[in-house]
Protein 1
Amino acid sequence: MKYKTEAAKYICSLLLLIPVLLISGCTALPDTEPFVNASLQLRSAFNAGGDAVEEELTNMEGGGKYAEQFHKEWKERIAATDALVTYADSLKSIVDAGNQGKESAARMAGALQELAQAAGIVLPPVDAAASVLTEGA
């Protein structure tokens, strides 16, 4: 292809390079669902286990003060499992956003192809390159 100016040559090169760079970062992200589910189950087990121990201590003769002490100290462990669930949910949100980003990059590549065609610039098939790169080699 003949370019009228050197600037046009560089602009066309950039138009081709930018979507490839953007799309190449879109690989398959890990499935965070098992981690989220395990975190929820762990928190549930901690809550149930703590409640059972506290109840047994309360029912024990002279165990009231031990039950209070246990309750006070167990709250820290419950807070830690709550934080773990919050962390797991945050990871899931990040992965979900990344997966949506892959779709956005593919749409952007298609729009760039349309723009190039409208401007009379011939680019290689962006759709084929986009699908190869977004599928995650």
Protein 2
Amino acid sequence: MLVFKFANEVLHTKLVYRQRVTNYTVCPVYVICADHDGRFQAPVDHDNSVQNACTKITLCSKLIQMLTAEKMYEKGFGKKTFKVEKECRIIKSSLTRRTVFNMHPEKLWEYIARELTAGQNSKTQKYLAFLSCTYWDGQNLHGHVALGGGGLALFGTGCLYTWPSKLEEVLPCFMNMAKVDTGTLLDDSCFRGNFGGCFSTTLGSVWHELGHTFDLGHSKYGIMGRGFDNVHLIFTLDNKNIAQEIKPANKGYIICIENYSNTINMKDDMSNNNNTIENETIDEYDSKHIICWSMGCASILSFHKWFNDFKEENNNEHKIDYVAKRNLLTSRNGLRVVQLRREDGLVMHSWEFVKNNNKRTFILPVQLANNGITIIAEDSYGNILKHLL
């Protein structure tokens, strides 16, 4: 029971917690190189121990879990979200720091993925992993990665020093306007140059990449677009510390992922949807500041195995079939989402059948067949088909 008091007013709120019973989980992981002590790069007076790293990772994994539920609720799907394992696992990699520093991010992702899934039941686990050895030397960044897909979302820890260790530190961390000393610390704030900006961008980036492990593509706006930079806007009313696009002349090095779009019409992402959705235009400013799931993303998550308690027998029966010559999708379980995506993962067209569980077939319009290279389909039990056109 929570009690809120203001002047003479008292509000009682009852909280009820029911733990989901599911084998499908997200496991936070702290990866330490073979020749590294596990201490992440941080200011001199900051606790950069392995224990504190795990504390930060566990807390922020739960923040992302909560944010996912709230944004699903805003889209009308209820507070659906994934289950996070209680403890952050510490994994000792066979890789040395020097090897990690010299590896291409994609190759590093592949290697860590193999290490994590060796001997594990990876079919029901997704890993949210962080590399302890990320290092900024004042000019160049080493051991950094931000990639998600399949069963692994992998990140560097260059800005872990800006993350909270306790729940009561979350808001102060978002509002921390202390300037980053780029001579000794990484500034991954999307040109804001302060601790709060680093926390917002990196937490949002983790959320974004974790979304890819749930089979989400890039959207033209929101969390799976560029909206993740401004996660702090969910927690604060301060609109001053907004992510920037133009690189200041006096900055040496800042990470900022390529923008996906300029002016967006939400109608493009929701065309042919069976649900009645108000068409609205998001201008260039709002597209970079709105923090939401697109309808296509929310629909995929709503029926995803990690967001539901489906019976195991539904996993192997009546999968989705695709007949290329006819551009025909069929599913006895009922199709829920069909998407066309570009090579870079951007969703070009999305069809959602959220309220229609009898959608057994879908014919891809011939005129759209060349608008993407991959067709993605999900059925009522979270079975997913990915087919190169």
Protein 3
Amino acid sequence: MSLTGVLARERLFAVLDRVSGHGDRPAPVALVHAPTGAGKTTLVSSWAARCADRAARGDRTAPLVVVIPLTERHGRPAALSEAVHDAVVAVDGSPLARLVPRPRRTAAPVSPLCLVLDNADVLAGRPAARLLATLARHPSLRLVLAGRTPQPLRPWLRARGRSHEIDVADLAFTEDEAAELLRAHGVALSPEDLAVLRHRTSGLAAGLRLAATSLTGRGAPAARPTTVA
């Protein structure tokens, strides 16, 4: 489990780590898209918390991550620009240090800032897409866009090899992840019942957590297998 009490999904963290320039096949943008209840927000927020912990322990490879929960008002480019500005100020104290290009020979390297835009579905329309494209091209910024549907910018990013994706199939819990989640709730299932539960819930976070809470409510001991009714 992670510091926040959430299951640390290392295989998906590895995909997000590529955005910061580390790991296999780095790219500056990650697209996380899946229906409600699939665990998008939990994933990106727990990854951000892990990056912050790594940085606090002196890991110089840890990216600076700022999560921006978007609302309907951020559908206006001016509001989104303001939110990005505020995020940069919170990290650097001045947006100029990161957003204004410096001479290559004299500038000290600036570690990339990763902006996690959660609920990115509100960023519809061409003006928002143009702003996102500008952010995606910026050398000192990295983006993680999380929403229910793929971003309109997706074809542009894919054609240029500038993105990685996490979709509903990726977010589905593996057998080991589901078993670990249940154990954290004090529930142990037989392999057969675990397979049934994963099938019924499509392996998605909301369904698995609801089932875990229900099974825990039955008073099932952690050391004994529990039958899925």
